[in-house]
Design goal:
alpha+beta; Pseudouridine synthase; 3-stranded antiparallel sheet; 7 helices; 15 strands; elongated; PsdUridine_synth_RsuA/RluA; EC 5.4.99.-
């Protein structure tokens, strides 16, 4: 059956095909359940532990537990029978460090809807030459029913912030319709360089994907062939003319919409190498990457109809840029309050 347990545990607990009961020793008092399992059960990965705990197959003193449950000396852990064959896989190899990261990124979970604060630098979905993506990591967020969450929308690879997920196919359909029907109020935070000349406004510029020359693989403004696209903006703070903290509220959901619209309007996003080649500020504390963060999502919950407002704090590197330019990370007023 293989050596499945820590050497100092009784050998009778070390067969994978039987239910096992392990007692927490005094030295392990206070440890998290998921980390204790990874440390003490030799062939159990962090991802496997998360899945078995969430689906109720691992019990503590006969009761369901959470991955972050703190264990007490003398408690009994029930481990289910486990097939020695490798777990089925969709081809994505989820690393333990990514599983831990995505679990820590959760900002809301009510059993129907789940939201994470997406880290920057990771694609939302897989594709050609994309080996690491959020969709592949969702196995670590498997629900009590054993089903992994579903993506409802996407954020660009270098964009951080609120990413909404559904716990079921039906919820994914309902949330998807809300995005398509513009029933989601999406607010993004960004730093632009230079600052806009107007303190607020709406950018109306139809977008289409370029097909040749320097425009290939980029979204471009095309007033004849492009799809309608509308973005509201509101300047929150300025740092002279060189930069501004700007809130954006896209009314449509075109690819790269905020980035293209900001560049088209003359105030590209700081660090946007694709659309804002000249938007660069160098100095201590200024992060050298795209300064775009999906700050909030507001909508009516599809089940309860409760007014929802999901907020994602700035990631550490963008927070440094906000600090370096003297911008508030907790603004005095709410942008787009009248919308």
């Amino acid at each position: 059956a293989g050596d499945f347990c820590r050497p100092d545990f009784d050998e009778k607990f070390c067969t994978m095909k039987d239910v096992r009961h392990l007692t927490i020793p005094q030295d392990d008092d206070g440890q998290r359940l998921d980390r204790w399992l990874k440390k003490n059960v030799a062939e159990m990965s962090f991802v496997m532990a998360q899945k078995l705990i969430r689906t109720g197959q691992i019990r503590v003193d006969g009761k369901r537990a959470k991955p972050d449950t703190r264990l007490a000396a003398g408690q009994e852990i029930r481990l289910p029978p486990m097939d020695e064959r490798p777990e089925k896989s969709d081809g994505y190899r989820l690393r333990d460090e990514d599983a831990e990261m995505i679990i820590k990124a959760v900002i809301y979970d009510d059993g129907d809807i789940l939201a994470i604060n997406k880290p920057p630098g990771i694609a939302t979905q897989g594709g050609m030459n994309i080996e690491r993506h959020i969709d592949g990591m969702l196995e670590a967020l498997t629900g009590k029913d054993g089903v992994k969450p579903r993506l409802v929308h996407r954020l660009d690879k270098d964009t951080s912030g609120v990413l909404l997920l559904a716990r079921s196919a039906e919820m994914a359909r309902r949330l998807g319709r809300m995005f398509q029907g513009r029933d989601m109020k999406k607010i993004y935070w960004a730093i632009t360089s230079p600052a806009p000349t107007d303190m607020e406004g709406e950018i109306k510029a139809p977008l289409i994907k370029g097909t040749h020359g320097p425009e290939k693989d980029k979204m471009i403004v095309d007033h004849k062939e492009g799809q309608k696209a509308y973005t509201n903006f509101e300047v929150m703070e300025v740092a002279g003319r060189q930069a501004a903290f700007v809130a954006f509220m896209p009314k449509t959901g075109r690819t790269h919409q905020i980035r293209v619209h900001a560049a088209y309007a003359g105030f590209p996003l700081l660090g946007d190498a694709k659309y804002g080649e000249k938007a660069a500020i160098e100095g201590p504390g200024i992060t050298q990457r795209l300064h775009l963060h999906a700050r909030s999502l507001q909508f009516a919950h599809p089940v309860t109809r409760k007014a929802m407002k999901l907020l994602a704090p700035l990631p550490a590197d963008l927070a440094k840029s906000w600090d370096a330019l003297g911008f508030q990370k907790k603004p005095d007023h709410e942008p787009f309050a009248d919308f």
